[in-house]
Amino acid sequence: MPRLKCAYCGKNYGRRNITSETVRWSSPTKQVTTTSGGSVTVLDGPATPAPAYRGNGIVVKEHNAYLSADNGRMVMTRDIWDGETWIGGYAPFCTLRCALAYARAAYAAARKPLAKRRGNRT
Ligand SMILES: [Zn+2]
Q1: What is the DSSP code string of the chain?
Q2: pTM over 0.85
Q3: What's the domain count of the chain?
Q4: For 85-98, what is each residue's pLDDT tens digit?
Q5: CA 52 – ligand 1 centroid, Å
Q6: Residue 21, domain extent
Q7: How many Å lie between the centroid of ligand 1 and the Cα of residue 96?
């Protein structure tokens, strides 16, 4: 689908329809003892890179990866765009202002031929 174009002003509008997926993967970790005597899981060396995206979409953004405290695995949010879907605005208008302007113009245009037709009959 091409980018959304306002039916009144002709400007492009809308934003890419982004979906987010959570990526989880394993990276070597180790247990360390805290000063209070507890134990925490930390990365053992540099984190393993996130698995590559394999879908058909376009990776818009990969957010910062971090080690989950819940399960000791890496977590990252990946924003994907399908490459064609746009959302937002007030389809087929960019704004309510344009929708209103279009409605007024259409109303005015609809009245004109009516008046002319009446004139032709007499
Ligand atoms: Zn517009």
Answers
A1: -PPPB-TTT--B--EEEEEEEEEEE---EEEEE-TTS-EEEEESSSPPPPPPP-SSSEEEEEPPPEE-TTTS-EEEEEEEEEEEEEE-SBTTBSSHHHHHHHHHHHHHHHHHHHHHHHHHH-
A2: no
A3: 1
A4: 999 999 999 999 99
A5: 39
A6: 15-121
A7: 8
